[in-house]
Amino acid sequence: MKARDIMVSPVITVKPSLSVRDVANLFLERKISAAPVVDDAGNLVGLVSEGDLLRRVETGTERGRSSWLRLLTTGEVLATEYVKARARTIADVMTRRVVTATVDTALKDVATLMEKNSIKRVPIVSAGRLVGIISRSNLVQALATAPRGLEMPLSDAAIRDKLLSHLHHEPWSHTSQLNVTVNGGVVDIWGICHSDAEREAVRVAAENVPGVRTVHNYLSMPPVGPML
């Protein structure tokens, strides 16, 4: 799937000249938590979210620092925080460096952008113009409505071959130290694993093979210390 398949469009946008109070009211009225900021030509110039409105002097939530912390904080940071807490228009509180994607960006890459940049939404652009937006909740919605696997169940022998082949290509798996038996769709996994995470990953890999009904995971960690 690509960004165009799940993005929200049209997008609720705001202008840089809009007041902070008006945007707060907009968020409440439209039940949204962020909005792209566009100029008069429709170009994306920023993004404003609830996070940009948290530290405000009107609500007494502006960031406070002890005297010794103020000495350790640069004047630039203190001045930026002052503006965030007291500015009247969105132009002064919005995030200007916006991470974007295109309509053809794969969803896995959109998820990577969110994770890498610690952001909750990605505006979608086409030819430089804003055409949509994807939030974390949209990715969750895509997961909830994704079609279930439609592959035909495999025979026991085919299940074993498919699982071992899959594990062989996974960098975390140690296939030379495990064995798999399959009987009536019931998979038994034996051998040595090198971590609890690897043990669980092997189980999940087995559960995703078409035709598997149950997985019995007997993988264990290698013994510690000299053998007696």
Strand order of the largest sheet: 3-4-5
How many helices does DSSP assign?
A: 8
Sheet with the most strands, sense and barrel status: 3 strands, mixed
The helical percent reads 25-40%
Order of helices and strands: HHEEHHEHEEHHEEHE
Low-pLDDT sequence parts: none
Using the CA coordinates, give the radius of gyration.
26 Å
End-to-end CA span: 55 Å
| Strand-pairing-aware structural class | alpha/beta
What is the β-strand count? 8
Tell the overall outline.
Answer: elongated
Strand content: 15-25%
Mean pLDDT equals: 89
Quaternary structure classification: single chain
What is this structure, in a nutshell?
The chain is α/β, with parallel strands linked by helices. The chain has helices at about 5, 20-30, 65-70, 75-85, 105-115, 135-145, 155-170, 195-205; strands at about 35-40, 45-50, 100, 120-125, 130-135, 180-185, 185-190, 215.
Q: What does this entry look like structurally?
A:
- 35% of the residues lie in helices and 18% in strands.
- With 228 residues, the chain is α/β, with parallel strands linked by helices.
- The radius of gyration is 26 Å and the shape is elongated.
- The model has no long low-confidence stretch (mean pLDDT 89).
Per-chain topology:
Layout lengths: L2 H4 L13 H11 L3 E5 L5 E6 L17 H6 L2 H12 L14 E2 L4 H11 L3 E6 L2 E7 H10 L10 H13 L9 E6 L2 E6 L4 H12 L6 E4 L11
Parallel strand pairs: 3-4, 7-8
Antiparallel strand pairs: 1-2, 4-5, 6-7
